[in-house]
Amino acid sequence: MRRYNIPTAEYRNFRHYDEAKDYLSTVNHRVVIKVSGLAAGKGVVLPESQGEAHKELREIMVDKKFGDVGEEVVIEEFLSGDEISILTFVDGHDFKSLPPGQDHKRIFDGSRGPNTGGMGVYGPTDFVSRELMWQIDRDILAPTIQGLESDGHPFRGMLFTGIMVMPTGPEVLNINLADVCLSCIKGTLGDQDLRVQDGYACNAVVASAGHPGEYRQGHRVEITPCPADTNIFHAGTILRDGHFETAGGRVVSVSAVRRTLPEAVEAAYEGVRCIDFPGMQYRRDIASRLGSVQIDPDDSH
After folding, report:
1. For FRET with 65, which of 4, 41, 46, 174 sits at 20 to 30 Å CA-CA?
2. For 287-298, how does the pLDDT look when each residue is reduced to its tens digit (9 = 90+)?
3. What are the chain's domains?
4. Long-range contacts for 19-28 (Cβ within 8 Å, ≥24 apart)?
5. What does each C-alpha distance from 287 to 61, 162, 175, 203 come to in angstroms?
């Protein structure tokens, strides 16, 4: 990203704990610590102070909190703003993006607690204008895709980009459909018309107690009929003796598409109320940035 002038936070990579610790002692701003490997969406920590940052760094690199994936870490500047997520189809040269969504990474309401792989998302995000999307295409997506092509590694598939919308503009946080996907492979994406359903979508995740830390498995999951056109997606479940049991941190997610955002949020939470297992937890403030829906705080398990 530095080589192609793609806007992102200031960062340094480290493979040795002592070097990372010494660098951390020199910074006078809040930081984010990321492991370089895959950690089921939990490899990003957001320490509130330098003392907490040193503690997290030691747990990752010395105590092997995330195992071998934490042998290399990235320490970067903490960015504050509105975070959005964009999925982009790429055929190696041309690209087309879906409307942006806003993810909810922290485990608790009000964006508190440790990061997870995501506790819910809604979209499209009305606060992202056409002008801002054009700027993201010009300053982030185009140079990323062109840079990969120039380096001899043309990317074909679906590109996920996490972006922080700052007062100065968008900055990258991280870069991780039959006919459309086939065009990506063939290099003919420019011939495809990307049609997106009108309306809004909301997805809420139901997680095990203790997630994203240690949690118990094997709880029986009860599912009653949910509203029409509301979908339940299984993630951390297993079918045993004719019923579902918990087998992961993020157990299921419930999604709904409706004409307005408040309707989509309400429908998703109606679906959540059809799920029941001991210790289940979920955020009650998905899409609350826009004050769209007030979820009854007493509606809990």
Report:
1. 174
2. 987 554 555 544
3. 11-77 (3.30.1490.20), 82-191 (3.30.470.20), 200-290 (3.90.600.10)
4. 20/57, 20/61, 20/73, 20/75, 21/54, 21/57, 21/58, 23/75, 24/50, 24/53, 24/54, 24/57, 24/75, 25/50, 25/54, 27/75
5. 35, 17, 23, 10
